[in-house]
């Protein structure tokens, strides 16, 4: 099945929003094995296992990168970008963000940084394609 660029952009926004919460599943597990205290959920961060602390950071970083991506993807959508590069960039962002979380949780900094770069490049690509679509 071949998706059009506009449809891919919208699906990618939804997938990226979902991907924000993937690392949180690891945080939830870490809380479970760390005797989670419902009375002070944020205070127990230091008691989490290291992988769950990294999952928390991956979860937080996912929020930070989602906003510019969503803006770029929506810009590409409203400027009617139909380039296959938009499709590739949207898919690359979602894949890179999922892998970013995996590499963050597994504590593989070089691959984590590479995935951050790929996701950032995908966002910049969508902004650039949008600006080219509206250029006179």
Walkthrough of the structure:
- It is a single chain.
- The protein contains five helices and no strands.
- The protein has 136 residues and is mainly alpha-helical.
- The chain has one domain (5-134): Membrane associated eicosanoid/glutathione metabolism-like domain (Four Helix Bundle (Hemerythrin (Met), subunit A), Up-down Bundle).
- The radius of gyration is 17 Å and the shape is elongated.
Gist?
By secondary structure, the chain is mainly α. The protein is 76% helix and 0% strand. The two termini are 34 Å apart.
What are the key terms here?
elongated; 76% helix; Four Helix Bundle (Hemerythrin (Met), subunit A)
Question: The biggest beta sheet, please?
Answer: none
Approximate shape: elongated
Percentage of residues assigned to helices: over 70%
Q: Look at the structure and give the mean pLDDT.
A: 93
Using the CA coordinates, give the radius of gyration: 17 Å
In the CATH hierarchy, the architecture is Up-down Bundle
Give the low-confidence spans. none
CATH class: Mainly Alpha
Tally of DSSP β-strands: 0
Q: In terms of topology, how is this protein built?
A:
Blueprint lengths: L4 H15 L2 H12 L16 H29 L5 H22 L3 H26 L2
């Amino acid at each position: 099945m071949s998706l059009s660029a506009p449809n891919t952009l919208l699906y990618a926004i939804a997938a990226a929003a979902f991907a924000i919460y993937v690392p949180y599943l690891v945080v939830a597990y870490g809380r479970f094995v760390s005797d989670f205290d419902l009375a002070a959920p944020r205070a127990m961060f230091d008691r989490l296992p290291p992988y769950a602390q990294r999952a928390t950071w991956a979860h937080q970083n996912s929020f930070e990168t989602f906003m510019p991506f969503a803006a770029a993807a929506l810009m590409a959508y409203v400027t009617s970008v139909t380039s296959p590069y938009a499709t590739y960039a949207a898919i690359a962002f979602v894949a890179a963000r999922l892998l970013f979380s995996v590499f963050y949780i597994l504590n593989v900094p070089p691959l984590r940084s590479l995935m951050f770069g790929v996701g950032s490049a995908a966002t910049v690509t969508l902004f650039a394609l949008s600006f080219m679509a509206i250029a006179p």
